[in-house]
Design goal:
Elements (H helix, E strand, L loop, with lengths): L1 H14 L4 E7 L9 H14 L1 E12 L3 H5 L1 H7 L3 E7 L3 H6 L6 H14 L4 E7 L6 H12 L5 E6 L7 H7 L8 H17 L3 E4 L2 E3 L6 H7 L12 E4 L10 E5 L3 H11 L3 E6 L2 H12 L6 E2 H5 L7 H5 L3 H8 L3 E3 L3 E4 L1 H4 L2 H22 L3
Parallel strand pairs: 1-2, 2-3, 3-4, 4-5
Antiparallel strand pairs: 5-7, 6-7, 8-9, 9-10, 11-13, 12-13
Helix pairs in contact: 1-2, 2-4, 7-9, 12-17
């Protein structure tokens, strides 16, 4: 596996026009089960074939089990300088329902050790909307977690996935999920509690104190290029030699055994490659950019759309104007962004914005004969 990760990293760096790496994120699956030497080898490959900034953020997702915790210091020596801890819950019964293989005490011990090794560079993931969870229990749990956190918190609402044991339990009525109104209240109260604890919300699900934002995730939300290495990884980059204009969306083979065979045969395990259209790229810039509290500046939008600014695309649409009048969306001299209330309703606003974007871009292309 280690050799295949190194080879695919080298291949994709060669295929892309990426000349400088500012962040690396080891995530998906359970990367903390990997040997620290594997992490070091991948980072050495990156440094050998492109510019790896000395200030680069190198994050490792950690499952807070005794095994994962015991290797934190070794991961630090391997080149990791930021940890993301999958706490998920501080209630042991809920962790069992979620089929997690750690308990509350182990999670807190992992967070404490990680913060000692990387002060100010530790993120914790916490999940709300869990089976049987009440608003009061959620607020108490979050307050308890924040007493242990010093830098970064990511909030996620539990989503039921078909085929999972939990999905079956809910379908059979064995467990009940909080209503939409309750989960909305949970999100709202979490934002209030985090703000009170000096955590600044900078994205729909992410909160940071003392500027400890995730630089890697900011790259996603700002529409920058990134390489996806390993089974099931996704990437977005401009291939070398095509003039520098067309970005590709790449998806790597999901099955590890098949992926390794493909890497050995041709240097990479790319299963699917899609050339993003101009409209497709702008859709990604819109959807990802509006997740940030700062939204999309005029300058940022113009970097991707030189002939149609934000005001030209969205300024004249009655449906978009209605969102502004309701106090959910802001379009001004700074750019386009959600209000405090609008950020919580982003998913419901996006269809309106995407339809208007498609209409405006299609009309311009037809007018220009493209």
């Amino acid at each position: 596996m280690s050799q295949c990760l190194q080879r695919e990293t080298e291949t994709l760096l060669h295929l892309s026009q990426v000349s400088r790496i500012t962040s690396v994120f080891f995530g998906g699956g359970t990367p903390s089960l990997a040997h620290p030497s594997t992490i070091a080898a991948v980072l050495e490959t990156v440094a050998k074939h492109t510019g790896l900034s000395e200030e680069a953020e190198v994050t490792l997702e950690v499952n807070p089990t005794p095994i994962g915790t015991s290797k934190l210091e070794d991961f630090l020596h391997a080149g990791v300088n930021r940890f993301s801890i999958g706490v998920q819950s501080l209630r042991d019964q809920d962790l069992k329902v979620l089929w997690r293989d750690h308990n509350c005490q182990q999670a807190l011990e992992t967070v404490a050790k990680a913060q000692k090794l990387c002060p100010g560079r530790v993120s914790v993931d916490i999940m709300f909307g869990r089976p049987g969870q009440s608003l009061e229990c959620w607020e108490s749990e979050l307050e308890e977690l924040l007493s242990m956190c010093d830098a970064h918190v990511s909030l996620y609402q539990l989503t039921l996935e078909r085929g999972t044991h939990l999905f079956k339990q809910v379908h059979l009525g064995e467990v009940t999920m909080p209503t939409d109104d309750v989960t909305a209240a949970m999100y709202s109260s979490a934002r209030r509690i985090l703000h009170k604890s000096d955590f600044l919300q900078y994205e729909v699900s992410n909160f940071a104190r003392c500027g400890a934002v995730s630089q890697h995730n900011m790259n996603y939300w700002k529409g920058r290029q990134y390489l996806g290495v390993g089974p099931g990884a996704h990437g977005r980059f401009v291939p070398r030699g095509d003039g520098g204009n067309h970005r590709e969306a790449r998806t790597q083979t999901l099955e590890p055994d098949v992926w390794m065979r493909e890497v050995r045969q041709r240097g990479h395990g790319t299963r699917r490659t899609i050339q993003l259209s101009h409209l497709g790229l702008l859709e990604e810039v819109l959807v990802m950019g509006l997740r940030m509290t700062e939204g999309i500046t005029h300058e940022h939008w113009q970097a991707f759309s030189t002939d149609a600014g934000l005001q030209q695309v969205f300024g004249g649409a009655s449906d978009v104007l209605e969102l502004q009048q309701r106090g959910l969306l802001i379009l001004d001299n700074r750019g386009l962004r959600c209000s405090w209330n609008g950020l919580a309703l982003l998913d419901s606003m996006l269809p309106t914005l995407l339809v208007e974007l498609e209409t405006q871009i299609t009309q311009r292309q037809q007018r220009d004969g493209r």
